[in-house]
Amino acid sequence: MSRDEDEIFAAKKPAPSQHVVGEPLEPLSVEELGLRIELLRAEIERLEAARAKKSASRSAADAFFKT
């Protein structure tokens, strides 16, 4: 098999399930870096949603106990 055929038929790497902060980035390809960025953006959105939910719960509790 030629090098081009190897690249065409090579198994695609699965998307990362996690990213370890501080891990070396040099071994990652541009595509893998993009997948990591998507993963981290999704995690940021999840964290922001959890923070908003907790903030709303706290505000409701504060309002209830102030009256």
Architecture blueprint of SSEs:
Elements: H1 3-9, H2 30-66
Verbal overview:
The protein is an all-alpha fold. It has two helices and no strands. It has helices at 3-9, 30-66. The termini are far apart. The mean pLDDT is 86.
Q: Helix count?
A: 2
The rounded distance between the terminal residues' Cα atoms is 77 Å
Find the structural class using helix and strand composition: mainly alpha
Low-confidence stretches: none
In short:
This protein is mainly α and 67 residues long. 66% of the residues lie in helices and 0% in strands.
Comma- or semicolon-separated keywords:
2 helices; 0% strand; 67 residues; mainly alpha
